[in-house]
Amino acid sequence: MNEQALSLKDLVKDFDGKRAVDNISFTVRRGDILGLLGPNGAGKTTTIRMVMNIIAPDAGHIEILGKNFSEKMKDRIGYLPEERGLYRKLKVMDTLLFMGELKGMKIAAIRERGRLLLKQFQLDGYEEKKVEELSKGMAQKLQFIITILHNPELLILDEPFSGLDPLNIELIKDIILSSKREGTTIIYSTHLMEYAEKTVDSLVMIDKGRKVLDGTLAAVKAEYGQKFVKVQYEGDARFVGALPYVKSWRDSGREMEVELEDLTKREQLLRDLLEKVTVNGFQLSEPSLQNIFIRKVQEGERA
């Protein structure tokens, strides 16, 4: 069996003379979670739409589950688009029945799995409610249920956490991890680096239509070395950015991530911090995905 669930080779897409996707290539192994990362307008959604055959690439080749895309293949894929859309006048269970039948499911199987998922997503009791009666968050959860209803081999999720509160983000994250444990291959785009860092096996970062980073999470972090210190503190630590041995820093108010020119300077950093702020935590760390993301985008802006 082909070990690759998805293979993209030299994809190109132009809109009105402007290049939205510029020679992007990457692969996704079966059973892995891949994070497709990048700022707004980077080309993530365009790439996903080409994978789903919603729009055609101007050049390049796509192979899904070892084959070229076909209509029959859609039954093996669960796709959550960036623009959510449901029939507002339909009842919740009728929506699941309609969508499940489109995927070739039997009515009894739709009802059984649908009720299980509605309970899992805390929507049990809403079967007879119309979609228009649901809150925005509930409607988004229903859209996600539709995406996984038919137990797809491949999940493609465009910004699955968008618009959700922290509790529902955690719920979606847990469902994604549960799907992986069942052998599903998952590709999702997101701006939430914290959740990508906790879930992905590999990542592809796109900026201005071009791939700027590609690899396993471990390999990407290793590329940036181990010269980082995470500091929890109280006080005004803006002076840290001007220290001569600090290569970069990212301050979140009570926590900062500092990249040193040389790791031997960590004791000097601690001494300088203790002179001016209260230090509640000080430890060596890997670079966060958020830090890597910001750096790559800034590099692109300077280029």
Please give the structural blueprint.
Elements: E1 4-15, E2 18-29, E3 33-37, H1 44-51, E4 59-64, E5 77-80, H2 92-102, H3 107-120, H4 136-148, E6 154-158, H5 166-181, E7 185-190, H6 193-199, E8 202-207, E9 210-216, H7 217-223, E10 228-234, E11 246-251, E12 255-260, H8 266-276, E13 278-285, H9 289-302
Parallel strand pairs: 3-7, 3-8, 5-6, 6-7
Antiparallel strand pairs: 1-2, 1-4, 8-9, 10-12, 10-13, 11-12
Helix pairs in contact: 2-3
* Separation of the first and last Cα atoms: 42 Å
Count of helical regions: 9
Supply the helix-strand structural class: alpha/beta
Low confidence ranges: none
CATH architecture of the largest domain: 3-Layer(aba) Sandwich
Main beta-sheet annotation: 6 strands, mixed
- Fill in the CATH topology of the largest domain: Rossmann fold
Strand order of the largest sheet: 5-6-7-3-8-9
Q: State the total count of DSSP E strands.
A: 13
Q: State the helical fraction.
A: 25-40%
What is the H level of CATH, i.e. the homologous superfamily of the largest domain?
Answer: P-loop containing nucleotide triphosphate hydrolases
- The H-and-E topology, N to C, reads as EEEHEEHHHEHEHEEHEEEHEH
- The CATH class of the largest domain is Alpha Beta
- Apparent shape: globular
Strand content: 25-35%
Average pLDDT, all residues: 91
Gyration radius from CA atoms, angstroms = 22 Å
The total domain count is 2
